[in-house]
Structure formats: C-alpha cells, structure tokens
C-alpha cells in the first residue's frame, strides 16, 4: 500500500491517529489507539524476550526521561546534537538543510560543515521550497533537544532525553554494585525519547516524541567472548562502504565467519549483527530479501562510534530502504565522558583483574518505526480480504470470541472470553453484525484465532462445550473442546527467545 | 520501617535510586532498577486487568505526553494549575505555602486565596524555614507545568502533560468512532505526568515525573447502570466530610447500600468505590484496616469534581495516611471545555437517543506511590529474615532457580530457568554463594518460589527430573517433577480480575 492509503487504514481502525486531533493535530506527535497500543506493547515484549534474553546478566530498567544540564553537557548533546537548518530570508520559512538538498545531494549532509552545505546550496541554485526565491540562508546548527525550566528559581535547566541510552550510562555504576559485578553486563531501556525535529514527516518515521528500545552491553575491551561457532555459517545481507562507494545499493549475502576473517569486523560485533537480523527476520517476520545491513562510513557515523551498521528494511509505503534499528560499537566514549563530567570514576574492578573502563555495544531499535514496518509488510489485501498477517505473538487481539446468535449464545461466549483473558490470552468479544463481518474485522486487526459459540456448544451430546476455532491465514476451521483451547492457543502467543550465550 | 531505612534498603537492592545519581541526583526524579521496573510493570498490569477488565468496552490507549498550548488553555491548566509559593525576601529561598504552614494549618491550603494564606502567615508569625527571618512574601501562584519551545520558530509553546487524563478526553471522539458507539465507554492510560513541584519530597510521593494509571469512564448522564445488588452489602471504610468536621480521623465501616440510601451518593459512584477498595485490599493486598476513603469537601476538591473520595492508606514509613488513588466524578467539565476550545462538538448520538454530552467518572491511581506502599506494607523483617511478602503476581521475579553445586548442576538449572522464562514465568538463575544466602536474596526481592537442582534431579530412578520447590512465606519445601512446575506456578502469577459488569 502507499503511505497515505496505509495511514488512512490505520487511522480508521484506531491503530493510531494525530495527537490532539480535535485541535488539528500536533505536528510530529501521534496517539496509539487500542490496537496500536497493544501491538506496540507486544513488539516491546518480543524485543525484550529476544535481546534482554541474550544473557542472564542483561536487565531492563526505567530511568527518568529528564536529564539535568550537566549530563547533556558531558554527553556532548548540548554542543553537538544539532541538525543544520536553513531559513528563507524572503518568506521566513525554515527547513532542514538535508531536505532542501534532497534532490541535488541524495546521500545527505552528514559530515559536511555549514559552509560546505551553503556552498552546495548556492552552486546548485537551490530555491526556497515555499516561495521559490533564491534567498536560502547559510545553514546554522539547530539543537534538537527540548529544554525545560527546572525548579522554581528559573535558573536551572533540564532537557527531555534525546536518546534512552544516557539513562543506562548514568545507572551503570549502581547496576554494577547491585549485580554480579561481572562483565558483560547489559542494561536495557524501553521508553520515550524527544527531539524537536525541524521537519517531522512520514508519520511514525520522524516524530518529536518516539519510543526506543535500546540495550547497552558493557564489556571488557580485552575480550568479549561469544559462542561464535554457532553463527559462523549464517549469511548476512550486508552493504559495506566499499560497495556503496561503487554506487551499489543491493546487499550481498556474506558468511558471518567471512565478515570476521576477511572483513575486519570483531567476532562479538558480527555475533550481535546475526542476532539482530534474526530478530527482524524470525521474530518480526520481515521477508529476508527486504533486510539490509547498511554500513556507515567514517564521515557518516557519530565520531564516537567505531563501527555502525544500520538495519534497513525496504518498505513499499515509503518507496525504499528505511532505518529501523542499528548496532553501534561506541567504545568507552560514554563512560569516559560521564566519568569526567560527574567527577566519579566509572571504571570497574572485576575479580582478578586490573580496574578497567568498559566498552559499550549498543543495540538500538525504533519501536514506532517498526509498528509502521509491521503494517507495511504484513497488512494488505488477499482477494476480497484485508488481512494483517502479524505473527500470532504480536497480534493485538489473540482471539475473537463470537456468539453465533447473540441472544442465545452471548452468556456462554462472554464467559469464555473472560476465561481466556484470565489465562493471559488477549480475547475480544464481538457480537456486532454477521459472523462474516466479524471475521473481516478480526482479519484486519491481525487476530490469528476466532472462536464461535453455537447451538452445538450448548446442546447435550458429543459436541457439548466445543466451539469452532477458525484460523486467520488459512480460513480453515475445526471443532475444539473448550478445555483444550488454552493449550492450542497459548504456545502461539509466546515470542521466540534466543539460545542463551 | 522508617522512611530512610526503607529507602536505603530499596536503593541497596536496586529497586530504585536517585536519577543521575553520579551527578548528585536530580531533585524529584528517580530511576527504577531491575526489581523496581519489574514490580512497576506488574502493578500496572494488575491495575489494567482489574479496572480495564471491568467491561469489554474499556480500552487502553497511549496518547502523547506533550500537549499544545490550546489544549491546556481549554482544560484550565494554563490558568489554574498552580501551587501557591512563598519567597523569603531575606534569603531568597522558595517554599510551597502549604509546607511552611504545615504546623499551624495541618489541613492544608486548598480553597484559600493568596491573600488569605498571607494573612495566616503573618498572624502566626511564620518564619522562613531556612534563615528564620520574618520575611516571607505573600504567596503567588506558581504554574506547575513544564513548558517547551515547540518547533523551530520559537513562537509555539507546548507543555508536558500534568495529568494523563487529557489524552483520553482528546481521543474520545475518535474512540467513539472506532468502537461500538455505545456508552459507557472507558479509556485508560498508564503513563508519565510531569509537574514542576516546588518542593519534591518523600521519595516517590512528590515527584516531578511520575506514572499515573487512569481510567476515564464516559457515561450517559441520564443513567449509568451497574449491577449494584452484587456490592450492596460490602462494607466501605469511609471518612465523610461531616465526621471530618467533627475532628474524626478514623474511617467508619458503612454498607455500600447505605451510602446510596441515606448517604446521598449515586449507585454508579459507590459501585466503583467498592471495586477500588477491592483492588487495594484484594489485589495489592493492603490490610483492610489501613485503608480509608477520604471524602473531599466542596472547598478542597477541584471545582469541576462533583464528588471526590481519595483512597488513603496508612503507611508507617510516612507516619500517617497517604493518598494513593482517587475516584472523581468530573461531570461534563472536560468534554464541554474541549468542545469549546477545539470548536468540535464532542457530544455523541447513541442509537435511539438524542445527542448528549457524556459525563466522566475518573478512577486514578498513583503507580509510584503504590510501589512505595507495597514496600512499606509488605517489606519487613520476620525473625532473622528480611522478607517482601508481595502477592505472587506482583513479584518482580517469580522463581529463583539454583544449582545446589554450581559445577555439577549449573547446565540443568540454566536450561530449567530458560524453559520457565519461555513459558512466560519470570525466572532468575542464581549460583552465587550458599543456598541459604540465595534464599535470603530471593526473600528480600519478594520471590515467591525457589527451585533447587541437585544430585537427585540428575540421578536415575524415581527422583530423576524432580527439583526442590521452596515457598517464600512458609519456607516449606517439596519435591516436584519438572513437568509439573509450570502448572504449579503459573496460576499464582495471574492477577485477579473482577466479575464483568
């Protein structure tokens, strides 16, 4: 589906809509409705089961979303977390430099100075997109953080966090003390981050408040041991810098072992690339041939990242590859900066070792962007039907429960829905209109199972307390005893977990 | 335990700690560690199972945390969401008027004008708590919302939401359209709210960023039908305004039916009071004799609340009753204000009825405050042991899994922990120090079950694949087959749900 068509369907079904819609919407903010919120929660749970599940020493925490000024000064965000913006000196419109340069410089402006960007603007005679005059200013850095007056004096400043990762760095020494005092130690956060984007767009792709799921793995720089043999033969769809420089856009499949042996990447890094691809392919169910591991060059990546591959997925609604996650080897940048900034030495002293400052491997995942990805790739038409082929464990509603005839079968169906809900199975009762229309609504919502209570369910005899179980994808039906339902349905609702390291 | 003692224990165990602790902490902000985050998530899930579970037409959504200025102007927060603050004109310290008046006016300052508060200050010769001079200013209203510069022009303003409820009101017409178009319709939100508190204190009790769980029930003012007979004989611990005015502080037990028949309260309101008390008593496990339904008088409650009872619980650590939730009958104030503010008529047209503007019953619950309450009431010492007697379905870790001898039994124990985790049972492996110390750590974390893998588990014969299951509260142990474990443990992990209306 096209972007606008997909967004209209998601709005109509109450998956998401513009925030403060009755006031005309708030640019860059969206509200999740019942289906969208449930889907989002299940995606978060699947992410946690997979990535936090990588080790018994990885843990989820919930740090505050607000950072005092000293923290963002130390992290470098106060100085560097900027996006170049240009102003039209004729009509006063404001644009991201990257956006106005999209046609003449599709590769973006990462790594260019404001003066260089200004030079490209003028040598290409780029006009103001609003008034078409040749009056675009030289770019100036615009800080994307939202600042707050903090406290009552009007003198303190704090900031909405621009990334969830900072909370993990700030918590590292406390986590070391309350845990096993051993590396690797993983700290995961799922939560909101905030950026005052100059030009929010593409619905969930450039929002001003968005949800990240991030795992920071703190490890001993002298060695991060992983069971690499288990993944050595896995093929990864990589697009490395050398091939990008030759103008290629399609990934090539490379053995994990070769990325280490001849590709110059460390084992621990490739091991986590493999698990990241498995998550997108095997857990979220994205088609393997749409996934690309896009290597960022020295100039493109943040200077503190030693290695960075973005996980990109080709989406029809947005006409190309979009970044949905990334794997960053951040070195000791963050702990080193916060050691300096706070005056507290964040190095640790593992048993039998000299004190050391851990390095960080960051696995990052855009929750909202993947809600969009799961809509783009799994929601579509099949013959007459609109069908959301979500993996069962991601479906907002696991089971639709219907009375065949509302008057006669409603009490049984309601009690059945409650019974399933009490077992932790998200069940939704629906008695509106015909059975066919109820199936259609559930298909559109991605519900993998539907149960219908009918005369046989209530009659005496061999079919008593049996219901019709109908499967979304195949539309096949079978008769199942009420007492067998949970055992049939529950296993399909458990997200996959990795083998532990 | 005393406040400081309890807070020290929670910090030491990594339940929570001051945010940005290595920078000296951020006043009014706390981070949840692994145990605290898991507990918080389970409390939220138990709240949702109970309150959203009240009807098939109640739904959880996730609206944005940021509100544009037009919204808070319409809601009245821009004008009225203030707390009187006083400044010492000698030392320039700033205080909440309520705080400096605590001793001379323990009932608070709700409903007083700044001039009246100033009068009380001067007639009582109240001194500055910092420098002891008699130079406290007349109070001025201090707006508690955090404002943001929104967008790139520097001219737009937006605000961090001061309560989650606004998102439900803004979403009401969309929810009406995507739902059954019938009343009552419930919209629930669990999420952060932000207030620039003049004097954050008491750890989780007055924070600048905190989590609320709120259910807004939109109903037909001509009638909100509830199955009142089911609750008529329930005794509720109420402290009504008339008894408060006579100086009484203890609640009296009153039949729900009498609160309607002679107490002047509507059935729908008392019905929800009953379910609220049941939640605190039966789901969170607070002792019944510590709960009090505290009625707010005309002057104390917000002017748009027609009826308000706070749910208060007596906590040892804070030396008295503390508000942990509330039931507000807000009338049509919110939809009416947003109809005016947005220019969009928010009245609805149920089948066979004239258009009407729904009224709102708000059930509100402070998640962080209840984390504190669950610590205060359930965490303590019993003989030699420190024990957190959380209900099993709230425990951060459901099962501790130990190898008796790490070297021999670790692989089996690790695989067992993974097997339980894959079934959705929060399991934590622990091989550190002695079995006794592992039990002690799990007792302190509130873990209801521990499993020990030993020689018998691995030996051939009748005890093969059996483990020792040990219960937290009784310390009793029994031998259980691995294949029976999930069936023994899972039912204890499901939070109670109400009978559906």
What can you see in these coordinates?
The structure is a homodimer of 501-residue chains. With 501 residues, chain A is an alpha+beta fold. Chain A has two domains: 3-81 and 144-377, BirA Bifunctional Protein, domain 2; 388-493, Rossmann fold (3-Layer(aba) Sandwich), CATH 3.40.50.800. In chain A, 31% of the residues lie in helices and 26% in strands. Chain A is built from 16 helices and 24 strands. A nine-stranded mixed sheet of chain A has the order 3-10-11-17-16-15-14-12-13, sandwiched between helices. In chain A, a hairpin with a 6-residue loop joins strand 5 (82-87) and strand 6. In chain A, helix 2 runs antiparallel to helix 10 (267-283) and helix 3 packs across helix 11. Chain A is globular, with a radius of gyration of 26 Å. The two termini of chain A are 40 Å apart. The model of chain A has no long low-confidence stretch (mean pLDDT 95). Chains A and B meet through strand 2, helix 2, strand 4, strand 8 and helix 7 of A and strand 2, helix 2, strand 4, strand 8 and helix 7 of B.
Give the % helix of chain A.
Answer: 25-40%
CATH A-level architecture of the largest domain in chain A: 2-Layer Sandwich
Quaternary status of these chains?
Answer: homodimer
Domain module count of chain A: 2
Fill in the CATH topology of the largest domain in chain A.
BirA Bifunctional Protein, domain 2
Mean pLDDT of chain A: 95
Strands ordered across the widest β-sheet of chain A: 3-10-11-17-16-15-14-12-13
Largest interface: A-B, 82 and 82 residues
Structural class of chain A: alpha+beta
CATH homologous superfamily label of the largest domain in chain A? Bira Bifunctional Protein, Domain 2
Biggest sheet statistics of chain A = 9 strands, mixed
Assign the CATH class of the largest domain in chain A: Alpha Beta
Q: For the CA atoms, what is the radius of gyration of chain A?
A: 26 Å
Low-confidence stretches of chain A: none
What's the total count of β strands of chain A? 24
The number of helical elements of chain A comes to 16
Spatial gap, N to C terminus of chain A: 40 Å
Shape of chain A: globular
